[in-house]
Write a structure and sequence with these properties.
By secondary structure, the chain is mainly alpha-helical. About 60% of the residues lie in helices and about 5% in strands. Helix 8 (about 245-320) runs antiparallel to helix 17. The two termini are about 20 Å apart.
Amino acid sequence: MSNFWFNDVQQAVAMVHGEQSARTAEGAWEEHADRASVVVAVHGPYDAGKSTLVKRLLVEEGTPVPQWLTVSGRKETTTACAAESRGIAYVDTPGTAGGNTEHDRQAADAVTRTDALMLVITPQLLADDAQWIRSFATGAFYSTGGRALFHPGALLLVIAQSDTAGVDPQDSPEGFRSLCDRKRAELDGMLDLGDQDVRPRVHIVSADPYAQVGADPQPSSSDYADAADWDGLAGLRADLAALGGRLDGLREAARIRYWSLQGKCAAEAALGEITELEPVLREARSRQMGRDLLLVKLQTLLDAASAELAAGIGGALHGIADRHGMSEAGLRAEAQHRLGQYLESWYATWDRKLKELAAEVDAEIDIERVRPAAKQFDTWINDLADRTASPEGIPSLAQLTNGASSAVKAGFWMRHGATVQKAKEELRKLADAGSVEAYLASGEAAFKNREVLESARAWLPRAEFIAEFASVAAGLVPLAQEALTSKLAAAQERKRRRELQSRIDAISAELREQVLDDPTRGWRRAVEEVRGRIEVDPWLQPIVATAKERVGELRRARSVLLELLSALPALPSLHESGETV
């Protein structure tokens, strides 16, 4: 049989579950493929009589009963265990439907790697029994392809504990046989199998008639001799013996079932992950769009504030050159006064607008946290990145611009009787002295008491900005003096004023940047804090890309798997392999 189909399934499974999982699945199959015996999994609900049946088969074949194979009224079988006898390995599985998920998992694992399957049920036939049996007979348990995946004779159905069905086989042999016929017909009607499905070989048996052997660890076949003509074991043993010469064909069919089930589970897992990822992807896109919009709003606010600041500074300075008779000190004081008034108004207006936008950012992020898809999104990021998606610890942005408003109230005036440079020198002396007391006692201190010293130290950063501002504003003085002393004609005067205006515009632009970047007022810093808050999650864009790529990969893998499951390899012919049915 060609290996292409199996290789394709393995590759698609690796796309869904990862290379390591695919290798693990391949290793599990190879372990089964190396077994020399025909593996028969004995599968069924709790207390159906599976262990009792395996024990009886071993005894009839003269094989010692292993110590782990015990029978009692308790749930004795907790793991899948195999007992070898005459070329057949009977795998006794934990009972299903007993409320133990680990037992169910082990039982399901056993039926994925078995050459033949023996299903064991009680005489009290239930609709659930029929549905469960149908899943094996039609191949639905292993595949979505809707095709039988067992050879005839490789799927056996045992109705166990027949002596408890309601008619005593010893008191009424005919009634017992009639009851067995009715049970077969009832089961056949419940299964409702089509022509293409595998009809299981049905055996009605009593592995321990009247429970006479019970918990005896090593009974002999003679212990069951009185029921040999009606207990049904002979027919079951004959069907099992027929499997012994068909190992190659049975093993290849088992391989198809195994990888078909791997593909089916991977296709289901892919659909489940796609269903999980799609809302994650939508949430990521929603967040990204919302934050992109906030960034646009922030940039628009910054541009508008900057433009208004430039216009306002220009407006405050443009009339300075027309003031006649003012000294240099007067011109500087006038420039500072005008700018101080304007900047206080500018800060008040744009601080408020920035705070409003910061509050909008906080509100949007709060909404992100409570949207139905947000929890799923954050959980997915946690799993992907092994980090917390919660931005706790980041301060509310509505508080970040408080400093900008309070700082401007101080104005632009030095109030300490010293220049900025002198204040710097005195603070260096303080640092060299090692303490305020040593500095004040030196006799060379410009600041004569602690209060003035501390005030100067607190005000120095503001003063440095004022000094920078003053150095720029000082550039206005020669322009104003030149305007005052100019004796040029009116045309020359207009030309000169245009040149002066151009130079004032350049000074205005420099002042604007100093105001925006002033570290003591922190307006642009506050803007950048808002920007950082909007962009606080750098995972958004990578998550969108990763999720989109993963969804695409899962869809491709699922499409391939469904196509492979709809075109399963044909079961090998037992006759072509030299085997007989």
